[in-house]
Structures are given as structure tokens and as C-alpha cells.
Design a protein that fits this description.
548 residues, alpha/beta, 8-stranded mixed sheet, 5-stranded parallel sheet, 20 strands, 32% helix, 17% strand, globular, binds flavin-adenine dinucleotide, binds NADP nicotinamide-adenine-dinucleotide phosphate
Length: 548
Amino acid sequence: MIESRGEVDAVVVGAGFAGLYAHHRLRQLGLTLQGYEAAGNVGGTWWWNRYPGARCDVESMDYCYSFSPELEQEWIWSERYATQPEILRYVDHVAARFDLRRDIRFETRVTAATWDEAAQRWRVTTDRGDQVSAQFCIMAVGCLSAVKQPEVNGIDTFRGLTVHTGRWPHEGVDFTGLRVGVIGTGSSGVQSIPLIAQQAAHVTVFQRTPNFTMPAKNAPLDPEAVKARKAQYREHRQAMRESRAGVVVPMPEESALRVDDDARRSRFEAAWESGTLYGMVSAYNDLLVDRDANDTAAKFVRSRIRDIVDDPEVADRLSPRNHPFGTKRPCLDTDYYSTYNRDNVMLVDVRSTPIVEITPTGIRTATDEYVLDAIVFATGFDAMTGPLLGPDITGAGGVALGDKWAAGPRTYLGIMTAGFPNLFTITGPGSPSVLVNMLVAIEQHVDWVADCIAYLRDRNLASIDATVDAEDAWVDHVNTVANRTLFPAADSWYMGANVPGKPRVFMPYIGGLPHYTEVCDTVAANEYQGFTLTPSTPRKPERSAPHT
Ligand code: FAD
Ligand code: NAP
């Protein structure tokens, strides 16, 4: 384990895809770095989320770094949607290939960061007692790294095994012969339930909100298709960066309401069969902005659920009705709906009969008691702001980030927040982040931050800070664009609605990656318009002790 240094150019918090790429880019600039990572090794999301069935829902060949043409040529993905172990092997490979671990202290959580105005530096402290001073602080803490336990009484009284999908034990969990309860039917529940059901004696799924999920159509990758993609990888990456969601999908400029029923059904069928997340969502140009158009997609998915699930009552319970299609992140699954045809799987609707408490022997709802040996919490995350508000971050004038964001996050471009100079948030709230292929978003942000730091250092500037005016205008824009869509209608984690008491604000930027990138590039080209740049003041020479 490496020791912390006292003074460095930059601290990088987090060693997932974002943190690792930040190490790579900043080291290329010649900066001295100190990395901290709460996990035991690199990988971020893919280090923590080891539940059965965990895999990406953006295709493997797109869900990987593009910064090194050699890396993308040499790495061979085995499946269309890679499993968590394969993604973690990839991250391990990248870390070793580019020697990215050498400045990172693992199993070390940053607990506080305080801006020292006089020194124009961040003072960062950790739960292991490290104290380091850095000119720049890069928060690469992830959007989905602060897990959320269900707000249910009695969790600690349960005598069986409890496990959260986002903190899965590394040695795995053997459910053989067990009666398992799963709370939560977002992506993590949808991916894990079919596999848990294959192993356990019995599975009871406690569902509060059914989600829209589509078949992944996962399969081994065809070596010829891989070869063809690799021959065109550079062009493909450019097309990804120029596409709205960081993946190349056809974007028909057509309303779902302007076509007849047969044409619409056949397009939805093709999208469903495509096995992609974005195929269905972008089948028509108004699915996410017009409720009637959206209903056509929602009805199609519900009809598919009825086709797959044998028991019409169960099919009905699995059918989402409370939120428009696509406004909570939809899922890609393997055999999710058909799992409810198994004799050992039961679906409990905890919206109509809420969970009252967890008891020593199981889960009690308003009407029944379920005896269980194990409970899986697939209950998600305190998304986007949770990881940033975990440490005590104090900016200029002693303002705490938690106070500044009490009514919701405020950022300029999702990269900086006014009053917190030299603190960069990779894929922060107010940027496209979780609405797009996150690898594209991460590389774009890290590149922007690295270029910004190079600019500051070339000109001997001590700090950069967003202006309040620029931030206010950006926050207004983020809200205006979101309010043109159906997203605010859903009680989603995008809205902070999954965490009791969290401000209800649509956190990511939905204006699309190309527009967002253009804004970021223009800001940089205009000498960081909307930011205040402060020159370095030469450090006073140490005064020597007076002679006596
Ligand atoms: P993370 O991978 O979350 O890494 C952040 C790291 O920071 C964590 O390891 C955490 O321990 C560390 N950290 C946080 N706070 C501190 C602190 N105070 N001190 C020290 N360390 C700290 N996105 C997609 O685009 N496509 C997908 O298919 C996809 N699948 C996903 C599947 C799952 C199960 C989950 C949970 C998310 C998925 N995502 C997906 C989103 C995923 O989080 C991103 O794609 C990406 O991995 C994020 O990388 P990151 O480095 O920004 O953050
Ligand atoms: P999530 O989407 O937030 O789902 C959490 C689930 O738990 C929801 O069904 C929620 O119900 C339920 N829940 C929470 N608290 C509850 C309570 N007290 N009682 C009953 N139910 C409760 O979390 P997630 O599934 O972990 O996914 C989060 C995000 O991570 C995804 O949206 C995606 O971006 C990413 N992810 C991706 C993949 C992938 O396919 N590659 C896999 C996993 C995660 P409500 O909806 O009613 O709140």
C-alpha cells in the first residue's frame, strides 16, 4: 500500500473508469498525484456490484475506453454485453497496462476537503488519517456509488443473510436451498432475480414499482463482426461522440402519432428484437416528450409482458403504469419476465401492501408475513449527489457543499460549482452523465478538465472558479430542457425521488451529448468564459529566524 504524500498537484478521488482515466491524463501533464479509493482495488462500479447477472447494458465494444487505439485493438470482449467479472478484468488490464495504480491508496475514503483560500489549495483528509494539500481536487466518485438501503424498520433484527447488490460479497453468495426475498425491481433486481431463482429454493420478489425492461439478446460476439468493428473503430468512436446518447442508434425524425398502428407495431417489434436500450427509447422522436406518443411504447411493452408471463394477474402486476416509458432508466434483461413462470418465484406488490417491517425471520407486509433465509436489497443508490456529499466539502468563505446544494445541486456544466475553485466533478449533476454511455461522458469530462488544468499551468494561474451568473444560467437551462420532457413526471432516482427528503430536481443534463460537448468546447475556446481565473501570487520566501 502506498503512503500519502503531503503535497501534490492533484488529488483524484475514486478509481473507477473516471478516476483511472484522470490519473492517465493528468500524469501525462507531468502533475504529481495522490489517488484515494474506498474500495480494495480499481474498477468502481464493477468492483462493488458483483451480484449474479451483473453486466453492462451498453454493448461491450462501446462500453470501454477509446483513448488508446492500441488498447481497443488488443482487448477482446467475449460477449455482446460483458459480465461484471469480464469488465473488471478489463479495468485491471488497463490499470496494469498504463501503470495507473501507483499513486492510489486503496481502502481509503476521503472524508473532507477544505479550500484554503490563502494557499489557493485543497486540504484533503481521509478516514485513515491522511492529510494532503493539492492545487486541484478531482471528484471521480461516480454517480452510482453511494448505496441506498431500504427505509424499512427492523433490518438489523433479521437473523438470516442480508446483502445489497451494490456491496456484494467477493466470495459470492450461495443461495442453494434458501428462501430468498428480493426488494427492488430496478436494473439490479431485474438482472439478478432470474439467476437467484435458478439457484434458490424459493424467491419472493417485493416490487414497489414495476419497471420497463427489454430483452438484451445477449450472445457471444461473432469474431468476424469484431474484426469488422475494429477495422472501423476510430470512425465508430467519432460517431458515438457525435450521437445524442454516446451510442450509435438510428434516430428517426418521426412522431409515433403520425404512423398507423401496423407500422408502429412493426417498428417497436424491431426495436424490441434489437436487444438495445436505446433502440426502443428512440424508435420515434416524441416518445420522451409527448405522453400520447409515450403511451404507444408503454402499451407495446405491456403487451409483450402479457405474451411472456403465463399468469395474467402476475403479468398485470409486472406492467408499469405509474411512470411514462423511459423516464426511469429502462432495463435490459435476460429471461426476466419468464422467470415469473417458474414455480419457485412469487411476486408481491408492496405498493398496495407495503412492507411494514423486517422481522428476525423474514418480511412482514401490511397483509402477510414471508419467512425467509436471505434478503437481497436491490434498492439502488443515492444517485449523483450522494457520493459528492459524502465527504465534508468546504469551499471559499467556509461554505459547505451540502448547504449550497440544500435545494438541489447547482453546477456550471456539471463540472464545477461556484465557490469551490479547482474542484472538478467528473460526470457531475448538470452534465449528460447517466443519460448516455458513461464511458463517452467520462472521457469527455476528463479530457476537458485535463485541458483546463494545462491551460492554467501554462499561464501560471492559481485557480479557476465558476461564476454564479454562469452557474445560474446553466442550472436554468438544465431545468428548462428537462421540463420539455416527460422525465420530471417520474419518481426516479434522476429526480432524487428515491431518497426520502432529497430535493426533487432533475439532476442530469438531457440536452444531448453533442450539444453539451459543443458548449464545453466553446467555453474553453473562449478562455473559460463563465469562469473566474486567479493568477498565482509568488509564495513569500520563508523568513529566516532572527539572529539573537
Ligand atoms: P464509479 O465506477 O462509481 O467509481 C467511483 C469510485 O469512487 C468508487 O469505487 C467509490 O468507491 C469511490 N469513492 C466514492 N466516494 C469516495 C470517497 N469519498 N473516498 C474514496 N473513494 C470514493 N453505465 C453505462 O454507461 N453503461 C452500463 O452498462 C452501465 N452499467 C452499470 C451497471 C451497474 C450495476 C451500475 C451500478 C452502474 C452502471 N453504469 C453503467 C453506470 C456506471 O456507474 C458507469 O458506467 C461507470 O462505471 C462509472 O465510473 P466512475 O469511475 O465515474 O464511477
Ligand atoms: P434502482 O433503479 O433505483 O432500483 C431500486 C429498486 O428498489 C426500485 O424498484 C425501488 O422501487 C426499490 N426500492 C427502493 N427502496 C425500497 C423500499 N423501501 N421498499 C420497496 N422497494 C424499494 O436501483 P438499481 O436497480 O440498483 O439501478 C440503479 C441504476 O444503476 C440503474 O438505473 C442503471 O443506471 C444502473 N444499473 C445498470 C445496470 C445494467 O443493466 N447495466 C444494472 C444495475 C444498475 P421504486 O422504483 O418504487 O423506488
